[in-house]
Amino acid sequence: MLQMWSKARELAVMTPPERNRWVDFLRAVSIMAVVIGHWLMAGLYIDAAGELRRGDLLSISQWAHWLTWGFQVMPVFFLVGDYANQVSWEATTRKAAPGQSGVYRDWLASRVQRLITPTFPVLLLWASLALVMTQVGLPRAQIRMATEAALIPVWFLAVYLLVTAFTPIAQKLWTKLSWGSFALFIPLAMATDWLTFTAKVPWVNFSNFLWVFLALHQLGFAWRAGKFEKPWFAWVWFAVSLAILVKITVFGFYPVSMVSAPGGFSNSLPPTLALFALGAMQVGLVLALEPAGRRMLDRVGIWTATVLMNGMIMTVFLWHLTAFVLVMTIDWLVLGGWGLGPVPGTTEWWITRPIWIAVYILALLPFIGIFAKHERSFGPIRGGRTVPRLRAVLGVLAICAGLGATAGLTIASPEGVTGVRWWVIALPLVGAALMGFGPVYRPRQRPGAAEMG
């Protein structure tokens, strides 16, 4: 760990002065909020009969629904993702020769590779575990629960990859329409919710994965264009968005919880207007705090920690629930459920949370040690050759379909000899092959601080 800190400090010192460090800080904080949120919400405990139960905190403590307004920070990740995508796309087009073909395809393939390649190990590991657990005769319901819990994070990648693919179109929309390129998604999201909840049209709500997150992604253009540089504007944006959010949740139709919770529909899977309002509120808040935040990040220690976190961010995101499942499995099978007596939401349970989170972090460290060093170790796409347009499109769709099925259906199958839905595992691999890369890491020189994110 000291070696990783030393390397991060070297990169921190090399950071060019024009870099917006607040982007990297928000990326790191948003992922850590997701990690801590998952570790808090998924509360296992042993009931009076000695059985291991899955006690979702949100099903037990109604007040905990308010916590999701702070822990559901995927909108912030889309905001900073747009900022990073803009920088990357503009640099690519600036370097491209006039009339050069395949620029977009190569750019998209490189962005997809950076996100999907670290995902292959966790998918293949859990496919192997599901196969082994099925063969030794463990109940398939338990296998499904374990794989489902460990692979929850991959749904986000499916949506993020689709939104990333729209970056050049989104940029053209911003150039032509400015704020209108954000506003046009509001009636689309509203119409989708009306069709879903009033007209009862099935499946149409899934289109909000695009309308809501494309809108929030679009705010990154506004940020980079300096539209939020006046703090008063950001604070007004925050206040108005908060008022709308309170109006449609506390005094309206939508649940307060911004993640799936018992007793109502989900505001996040798929997104609703409530999540749209939450995202707008969070954007206003984090951009209002930007001037103070950038001054804070001038401190070398804080900036070094940010660089360190960004260097292993995908590893932490993808493996944190595997670490959780590993800890719970060892505790239940080897230690007899030590420390799992408190029921989620009770005072005793909250007092023990810092201890358990520390245990989860310790369990995550080996995964960081094994996989984090590969996060930026990607080789060239097909030796520098451009893949055909159709293959690139089919590749992205196959990857997104596979990741979506992993989160929605899980890789564990209730039928069959192997107990694994191999087609779900195969889709991202096939998609990667179509785009010209695969699940094998091909080391190259690690980038400097200017390439982070």
Task: Describe, in plain words, how this protein is organized in 3D.
This protein is mainly α. It has one domain. It is 65% helix and 2% strand. The chain has 21 helices and 2 strands. It has helices at 2-13, 21-41, 57-60, 68-71, 74-95, 103-116, 119-135, 140-150, 154-165, 167-177, 180-183, 185-197, 208-224, 231-249, 273-288, 290-296, 300-310, 313-333, 347-371, 389-408, 422-435; strands at residues 42-46, 52-56. A two-stranded antiparallel ribbon has the order 1-2.
Major sheet characteristics: 2 strands, antiparallel
Question: How many β-strands, per DSSP?
Answer: 2
> Which stretches of 5+ consecutive residues score pLDDT under 50?
378-384, 440-453
Mean pLDDT: 88
Tell me the series of helices and strands, N- to C-terminal.
HHEEHHHHHHHHHHHHHHHHHHH
Beginning-to-end CA distance, first to last residue: 21 Å
Please render the helix and strand layout as text:
Layout: H1 2-13, H2 21-41, E1 42-46, E2 52-56, H3 57-60, H4 68-71, H5 74-95, H6 103-116, H7 119-135, H8 140-150, H9 154-165, H10 167-177, H11 180-183, H12 185-197, H13 208-224, H14 231-249, H15 273-288, H16 290-296, H17 300-310, H18 313-333, H19 347-371, H20 389-408, H21 422-435
Relevant terms:
disordered C terminus; globular; about 65% helix; about 450 residues; 21 helices; mainly alpha; single chain
Summed up, what is this model?
With 453 residues, the chain is an all-alpha fold.
